[in-house]
Specification:
Elements (H helix, E strand, L loop, with lengths): L1 H13 L1 H14 L3 E14 L4 E11 L3 E12 L2 E16 L2 E12 L4 E12 L3 E10 L4 E9 L1 E2 L4 E12 L11 E13 L5 E12 L1 H9 L5 E12 L1
Antiparallel strand pairs: 1-2, 1-13, 2-3, 3-4, 4-5, 5-6, 6-7, 7-8, 8-10, 9-10, 10-11, 11-12, 12-13
Amino acid sequence: MTCRVLLALSGLVAFPGAVLAMDMGKTMDDPLLFTVFAEELEWRTGDGEDGFAWDADAWLGRDLHKAWLKTEGETEGSDVEHAEVQLLYSRAIAPYWDLQAGWRRDLEPGPDRDWLALGVQGLAPWHFHVDAAVFLGSSGRTAARVEGEYELRLTQRWILAPSAEINAYGEDDPERGIGSGLSSAEAGLRLRYEIRRRFAPYAGVHWERRFGDTADLAEAEGHDTSGWRWTLGLRAWF
């Protein structure tokens, strides 16, 4: 045993360059990468006042481990209808699938709310992109969200992308205009033209609807419970 240890140590001393090359090889095979991806940066017009919406991510990490920053929201006129940010740790658990856990903060409307987030994100069969998560908040609050998107490539540059999102909450939160149960649903259809893969303007249509107690709270505040909007926006990443 002692001889083997001495032989190993002598190898490290005699060939330090080889050991360094092995470490550099591992780093080159799994480099540290950084990406910013704006899925939606769009102007909306139609039912209600005109507004702006965003859905953007950024991540830093290697093949198996990443740190994610996510943000999304929308405005209507001069009012912020919804805004949130998430900071997550992401771990690859299967080809095309990541397990994510971390923190979410709801910023608008009403008082801020903090949540513990746990979810999965990946590419389902037939190339459906899925992002599903559950959230645990203070005072026993719970929430869930499922998002899905599919890209239909019409030509090398034209892509039609239908999308949908569903939100549900376990308890009423009147201060934020949220009722328990199925809260809201969104769907969109966007046609984009990829000038480059990293830069693609688009146009489309977006639909939203509130349900149950959330719809009742919105009506009490004088807001619409459903509506259609035309969208014009940009999808970009670097």
